Amino acid sequence: MALFDFLMRSAPQLLEAQQSHELTPNDSRSLFSLDADGKPIGVLAREWGCDPSTATWLVDRLERSGLADRVALRCVALPSDRRVKLVRATEKGSGTKDDLQAAYYRPPAEIAKLSPSDLDALIRICRKLQDG
Q: How far apart are CA 52 and CA 75, in angstroms?
């Protein structure tokens, strides 16, 4: 309960960072899964746990913002078949990801107040949670 309450209190810091780039939480989550190499919509839909039409809608939003683009994947067997598109982060998208990551990793004020031993314990516990 206390961890949930802490996370909820720190959520506005994350939302502020997203809103400064005119992104929703889903836009941000989607952007973080893109890279410069690109991924097909079907792969993104599986990663995002949604159907391909929802993934297309999310990609459309990122593309309108200049954060992502679609490029045709050339099929070796059928070079004229341009149906498969890769979605990739643009230069602006990569820069936005860097800005958001810096904001996300900025510790909330409550963490800065922890003693060194409490901070070490928190880091150890978070690593255990991360490892599953």
A: 21
Model confidence at 82, pLDDT cuts 50, 70, 90, reads low
Supply the mean pLDDT for the chain.
89
Cα–Cα distance for residue pair 20/78, rounded to 1 Å: 43
Question: Rounded distance, CA 112 to CA 125, Å?
Answer: 17
Q: Around Cβ 15, how many Cβ atoms within 10 Å?
A: 13
Are 29 and 19 contacting, i.e. CB atoms less than 8 angstroms apart? no
Higher pLDDT, 109 or 117: 117
DSSP class of residue 75 equals P
What is the C-alpha end-to-end distance of the chain, expressed in Å? 19
Residue 95 burial (CB count, 10 A): 13
Those residues whose C-beta lies under 8 Å from the C-beta of residue 59, and which sit 6 or more positions away, are: 30, 41, 44, 68, 70, 87
Give the integer Cα–Cα distance in Å for 123 and 121.
5
pTM: 0.79
Which strands sit side by side in the sheet containing 85-89, from one edge to the other?
39-40, 85-89, 68-72
